[in-house]
Each structure stands twice: as C-alpha cells, then as structure tokens.
Amino acid sequence: MSHNAHIGRVEVRRHLGATVLKESMAKDDGPETLGHPLDHGKYNVSFNKARQFIFIRHGEKPPKDENGKETSDDLSQQGYFRAANLHQVFGKGSTPSGYNTPDVIYAMKSQPKSDASNRPFETVEPLAVALGMKPTEDQRTQEAPGVNVFDNCFEVDQHTELKHDVIERCESGEYEEKTIMFCWEHKNIPYIVAKFGFAKKDLTWGLNPKRGKDEHKNFTAIWVFTPTNAGLDFKVYSEFEIGSEGNSGDGPFTVQTPPDGYGKEVYSHVDTDLRT
User: Fold this and answer.
1) What is the pLDDT of residues 210-239, one digit of tens each?
2) What whole-number distance in Å separates Cα of residue 248 and Cα of residue 153?
C-alpha cells in the first residue's frame, strides 16, 4: 500500500547487543482454553464497504502476584515500550503490503473494579497521537465522520453493541474504504471476531488461530480481515519482540526487528462464503 508522509517518531533509546526478553517473568500456567462457547453471528454485507479490520492485543502487563492476582491495571515497562513503538508497525509509510495504517481505532474501555484494564487504551494512545487522533478516555473523538477517529466507549464484553456500531457506520458510508483497528483484552478478541461473523469456526488468540489453545503469552499477533471479491481474507502477522540488555526484564529495552522486517505474515485463510 502506498502512504505519503512518514509520521513523527516517538523518541526511544536504542541499545546494541540486547538479548531477547525472557518470558519467564510471570509464572507459565500453560495454554488456556476458551471460557465458554463462541457466539457466531451472521456476517453483514455492510462490512464489505470497509477496507480492512485489524485486531491486536494490548501490550505486556506486570507479572501476577504469588496468588495469581493482577498487580496492576496498567502496562508493564515492556508494554509501554511496545506502545511507544507501534508506529513502526502501523504508522504511515511503515506498513507492509498486507495491512494498512488505521483510520479508526477502537480501544477497549476500562472499568473500575472489574477485569477490564487500562492497557488497551495505553497501548494504542501513542500510535493514535502520531496519526493525528485525539485519544480521550470514555469518549469518541474525530475531526469529521470517519476522519482520525478514536473510540473508547465500549466495554470488554460489549461485543454486540460494538458490532452494531461498526455496521451502522459502514452502512452510512462513514467507514467506506476505512481501515478499522480494535485493541482489546486478548481472550475477548475471538469472541468479537465470531460475533462479527468473520469466522465460521472457533478461533483462539495467537499466531496460530486454529491451534485450539489460547496463546496467552503472545503480545505480537496482528489479526487482519480484508473483504475481497473472492471472500473475506484472514491473515495473521507478527509485530516485534522486545529485547533487554539485562536479564531481569527491567530494561533498557530495544525493538528486535524481525529479519524480514515488520509485519511478517504467519497465517492465511480465505472464507469464500462470507462475502455475501
């Protein structure tokens, strides 16, 4: 895809000779399965008006305490570092041919005293600012209908309401030829995809969506759904790993650029029955 100007960059310190950050900071309880059956909704033809739909998980989170409880609703240091560097993956002039820079970003709304954290908002806030959006908690902001849209109005499990909002804006033409990004809690992404009717079979979060097990430690997957004449094209790409000079995971951090560049395609499938 062709893009014009490259966005202004968030300054981050780079360090040579970094080692890949170990994932052992939090206890590995093994892959998790889905909590309850997915509700597969019907694909709405209005989705075809949009250019593309992108789903990502929030950035890294702090390790749980000894009782397995969350210690913070915010990102960890690695998570903030990932957020500061997402412009390298999704910024104008930075995306590969397989997916586009988002015109619209939906970030999951946080809910006090619940499982819904601030992490999705914190993850995409720097990218949104770099793209000219005005991310504001609990609000929808835009310059004009479909222009520099940031939405922080939908809670973690409001899948049906989210679907209806997107359909309505596709039908009105507001999202025509727009790329729409969703940043959510990872276990809910397969439920949103199912509710939208984007998959006929159950998917699980990760780089291999048909693995049948939730890749709960994966923070790099990018799920991309593109309406085409042949059907709904589904591809999975990978962002980047984060390196740390030390072994403690406290940084300083560096982006581990993949050998093939950002946005490496790792999975592809076309559902021909979901075009109409």
Assistant:
1) 989 999 999 999 999 999 988 899 999 999
2) 36
Tell me whether strands 104-107 and 179-184 are parallel, antiparallel or unpaired: parallel
Ordered domains of the chain (ranges, CATH): 40-274 (3.40.50.1240)
Give the rounded distance of the alpha carbon of 239 from its chain centre: 10
DSSP string, 41-93: -PPPGGGGGSSEEEEEE----PPP-TTS--S-SS--HHHHHHHHHTHHHHSTT
Considering only 34-38, 57-61, 97-101, 195-199, which range has the smallest mean pLDDT?
34-38
Burial grade of 256 (CB within 10 A; 0-12, 13-18, 19 or more): middle
CA distance 165 to 151: 11
Nearest to 203 by CA among 163, 236, 170, 158: 236
For the question of whether the overall pTM of this predicted structure is more than 0.70, the answer is yes
Q: Can you give the pLDDT at residue 113?
A: 56
Instruction: State the helix-helix crossing angle for 77-85 and 119-130, rounded to 10 degrees.
Output: 30
